From TrEMBL:
This is Small gtp-binding protein. Residues 284-310 are annotated as: Disordered. Pfam families: HydF_tetramer. Residues 150-261 form the Hydrogen maturase F tetramerization domain. It comes from Nannochloropsis gaditana. Gene3D superfamilies: 3.40.50.11410, 3.40.50.11420.
Amino acid sequence: MDAETPLTRLLRPQALLQAFCLHHYIPTIAYRMNLSKARSFPPSSPSPSVSSMQSPYEEEKAKFLSLLSLLPPGSLVVTDSQAIDVVHAWTLPPLGGDESFTKLQKPVDITTFSIVMIQHMSGGRLGAFVEGMTRLVEMEEEARQAKEGKEARVLIAEACNHVRIPEACDDIGTVQLPQALRRAFPHLGFHIHHAYGREFPWQALQDGRYDVVVHCGGCMIDRQKVRARMEECADGGVATTNYGLLLAYAAAPQAMLRAVRPFGVEIPEILSKHATMVEQDGDVGRRASKSGSSCLNPVSALSPLTDMKE
């Protein structure tokens, strides 16, 4: 939840997913993480008079991991895309030397609401959005090897018309996604346009004015319109990816790879190689929670979720 979310209400993807699970007799637990505490990293040399477990960071982490310890095997954690950096890092096995948290011994399956929604709204075509990430990676590699500036023309398409308050909180479409693009693909320059609500630049897509469309989960339009947009992009030769995929990849490439595993999506080789290269450069996966927004700021058997293909 951020500053643009009405108080005491669930976002539509949160409500839809929980309703789907309950209709299939799958129990759910709703948990609201305090991201301010989760990103208030403890000092490297804490004062001897203050226990590390008393810091807001350790307090929030302990609360989250205690909840995870109650979940049965085969459970899935679905997070808001804006918190994927923290959730990815905290659902890995205990870090070396970290004896404070021993309850979480095995990786937990994770994904994001945006990824679940685009899988559902596209009729099970999440793989096409994963393929869309390869276009950005290919352009990044071309720019890196050429050692010269290369511009990517990106359309960020958000199907809702919510009030945007960038001065109060990092709006996901206008602030966080542009930052994520530049963080994940530092060798590229970006020319970014936005489309909101039912507006969609059909002619611009046909004219080849964009390289990539980054689309939201599509919860505020119908499935037919989502698929029509996908087909229009394909006809114009424009790659299509998703908010959740991009934010996960920007936090840590392995976070995105983990987030699509519950759906059995095949990962293109170029994405796997790029993810490995990035993480070898700086062990990004274990430091993912330090790259988050300032806002507030083998595969398990999950057949019930895969039912959302249709």
